[in-house]
Amino acid sequence: MVLALSQSGRSRETTDLVARFRAAGVPTAALTNAATSPLKDAAGTTYSVGDHPDSRVSTVGFVVTYAALGMLTDQLTRGHAHPGWAHVAEAVEETLSGAAGALADFAAGPLARGSLDVVASAPQLTTAEAVALLFREGPLVPATACGTRTYLHGPMDVASAGTSHVVIGAEREAALARQLTQKPTGVLTVMERSVTPPPGVLAVRLPEGFTPTQRALVEVCVLQELVARVAEVRDEPVDKVAFAREDTKIAALAEL
Predict the structure, then answer these.
(1) pLDDT of residue 125
(2) Range(s) of the domain holding residue 64
(3) Ranges under pLDDT 50 in the chain
(4) Are 199 and 176 in a shared domain?
């Protein structure tokens, strides 16, 4: 079974792969936001998450697709969706309310000019990868995602005033954030309320009790607000096109 994901359903490589597997007799399914697309034509079964209007960086599409996959995984592994999914939206609103000041201050700090490292514990690497991508594609901030262990073994040595840091995780990541304050760099921690943020950093405090998958969705939604604030500060609208892509999307299956 092949399950393919594409916000627009127009991704060239994804559609090509699905068409090849289906031709070979492999069951194929696609999950997209778009109601109609080349990928829908290529796949044996297609599910749309609603054909919702979205930003250029697919903020809506990512959130809805991620939630759908998370609940599907629960269904396959547990036999039912984890009850925490029903409380994710409330957790996002609650966290944003408490973090508004920290997000605004972080956006107006060194990140208003420089680059960004997003560092996360292993269970939260999804957050790091998704957020770094949003910063690159949205406000055009040079951003890199990294796991904590890898970051501790070299990349952190180049921390400077020109690189801000979003650090996501637990006690080990709090220790990393404390070390980073030894350099003139901006640091924002994203951690559960049971973890005390070190002095000198801005903090997003998360509610407890979610699975790592659910927690990642809360983190991404909250940090989407940071992306929007940085876009305003840097005067780089999220929906501004950086390049006219010539070979990553197709309009019809016949283009393969």
Answers:
(1) 98
(2) 2-79
(3) none
(4) yes
Instruction: Give the H/E segment covering residue 192.
Output: strand 187-192
What's 222's domain CATH number?
3.40.50.10490
Q: Is 66 in the same domain as 153?
A: no
CA distance 128 to 134: 10
Chain CA centroid to CA 27, Å: 29
| pLDDT recorded at residue 23 | 98
User: How far from chain centre, in Å, is Cα 122?
Assistant: 14
Q: What was the pLDDT predicted at 251?
A: 80
Pair (73, 93) in one structural domain:
no
The predicted pLDDT at position 245 comes to 65
* Whether 30 contacts 45, CB under 8 Å: yes
d(CA 3, CA 32): 11
Question: 222 and 121 share a domain?
Answer: yes
Amino acid code (one letter) for 246: E
Contacts 24+ apart (CB under 8 A), 31-35: 31/3, 31/4, 31/5, 31/6, 31/65, 31/68, 31/69, 32/5, 32/6, 32/7, 32/8, 33/7, 33/8, 33/9, 33/58, 33/60, 33/61, 33/64, 33/65, 34/7, 34/8, 34/9, 34/10
Verify that 98 and 75 share a domain, yes or no.
Answer: no
- In Å, how far are 123, 196, 207, 219 from 175, measured between CA atoms? 17, 10, 20, 20
